Amino acid sequence: MPTTDREVRIAHAFLDLARPRPDFDPLELLHDLTSRAAALLPVRCAGITVMNRSGTNAVYVTASDELCLALEEEQTALKEGPCLDSTRSGQPLPVISLTGPPGTTRWPRFAPLARRAGITAVAAVTLRLPHLPRLPLGSLNLMMAGPPHPSGRDLRLAQALADVTSSTLSFRQQPADKNEVLGQLQIALDSRVVIEQAKGILSVRLGVGMDEAFQRLRGHARSRRQKLTELSARIARGDVPEGPLAPTR
Question: What is the C-alpha separation between 136 and 114, in angstroms, rounded?
Fold first, then answer.
């Protein structure tokens, strides 16, 4: 049976998420996971939420685009939503419709906001340590704008992508314990603030949207083997490279 284009893209996704990098940045790895999920699955966008280091709150980390990021922020503000539920419980969510009659939805405040943004269904899989599967770290959240919705096979693929990403976080050199991996996630949480600042600066300076600003920021860092967080910190301080960040191809 010939190999399909999607199968090739899936193989490349696993290789990319598992590849060790000298300029390893946990936030960039998590963003790669959301981008791969959004590209390979029948979803509008994908995001990641994790428990903070104290284990008291579910906090958004990154997303495949600004729409998903905004909806993750709304859930944090409302203290309800699928991302928070999956992260707090450590359990996956099947595909759940957000289009039921008022009063029947699981998230009465979040669902109307999501629908206004064009999101009609959600699902989630867990981020978990491969050697400690009962210790959830967070969730990969999937948002759909309409059918076709992810099948059971699609959700198993999403879980496999999340698992290989968690493996990369915990097995960069040798098996890491829980605190080391939680430390990596805390670095990602801390990094998101400075990256958002850099995106905003570039969006204004280059006259592009936030999604495009992030792609240019990321491409510039990768082409020069810089850590995304370090480049973002420079830009947030006002040190924008001369003639930087050419349009993405």
Answer: 26
pLDDT in tens, 77-101: 899 999 999 998 989 999 999 997 7
Specify whether the CB–CB gap between 213 and 246 falls below 8 A: no
Summarised one tens digit per residue, pLDDT across range 134-143 is 677 899 999 9
Contacts of 153 (CB under 8 A, 6+ apart): none
- Asked if the model's pLDDT at residue 176 lies above 70, the reply is no
Domains along the chain with CATH numbers: 5-188 (3.30.450.40), 191-236 (1.10.10)
Cα distance between residue 127 and residue 166, in whole Å: 6
